[in-house]
Design brief:
With 158 residues, this protein is mainly beta. The chain has a single domain, classed as Hypothetical Protein Pfu-838710-001 (Beta Barrel). 10% of the residues lie in helices and 48% in strands. It contains 2 helices and 9 strands. Strands 1-5-4-3-2-6-7-8 form an 8-stranded antiparallel beta barrel. A hairpin with a 2-residue loop joins strand 2 and strand 3. The protein is globular, with a radius of gyration of 15 Å. The N and C termini lie far apart (36 Å). The relative contact order is 0.26.
Length: 158
Amino acid sequence: MGQEIERKFLVKGEAWRDMAEPVAYRQGYIARSDGRTVRVRKAGETGYLTVKGPSVGKRGGTARAEFEYEIPVADADEMLDTLCEGPLIEKTRRKIPAGAFTWEVDEFAGANAGLVVAEVELQDAAQEVPLPDWIGEEVTGDARYFNASLVTHPFKDW
C-alpha cells in the first residue's frame, strides 16, 4: 500500500523563491468525501491521477494512504476541463532541497492567490525535521489548508 506522511507549514519571507525552478501545477478533484479524494493533476507537462485516504495520526493527521499514477497529459487536461469541480487549484511549485529533505513550496494563484505553503514528506510520523528559516507556523492538521478544501473554501474568502 502506498502511504504519504507529510507535515505542512506556512512560508515566510522571500528567500525560498530563488532556491529552485518553478513548475506550474493545475489540479482538480473528481471526488471528495470523508477525507478521501480522487485528484487529477497536471504538473508541467505530466499528468497524474491520485487516490488518497483520510488523514490519521499525530499533529492532526500526518499520514494517509496514497496511490498515484502517471496518465497521459491529454487525459489529465480533459478530466480537469470536464470532470473536476471548480474552481481548479492553480499553483506554482518549487522543490527545494534542505539537508536530507526536499521541501515542496506551493505558491497559489487564482481564488487562492496570496497563500504560500510548504510540505515535507517523512519516512515515519515521528521523524524530526530541521526547519529552514523561511518556514513559519505549522498547519498540518488545519483542514483549511488542504488542497481539496481550497476548492470550496478558497483563501480569498477567509
